[in-house]
Amino acid sequence: MKELTLVTKLGESHEVIIEKNMTIVKLAKKNKIQWGHACERGICAQCRTKVLEGAEFLNEVTKEEKLRLKKAERQDHYRLGCQIQVQEEGPVRLWHVPY
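The chain above was modelled as a monomer; its predicted structure follows.
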């Protein structure tokens, strides 16, 4: 499996092994990386994440993300870490950018 780069809100970069169909929040937890979250249902948006690279390897934007994030945010490549799942191997780089 390829690696995924997770950049915390403090700018710390972590390389983790991609696990398909696991949310970024769960993957961060598993690897003991601080990735803020509260609900894991797409409501609180504490896990707001900017996709820096590899959007084509991720799942489609979910209905929860469409409800919680403004259209302009989605166009600027913001997603919710509790909704993002890697679907295919490829270079993916994500940055935790909470409000």
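DSSP finds three helices and five strands in the chain.
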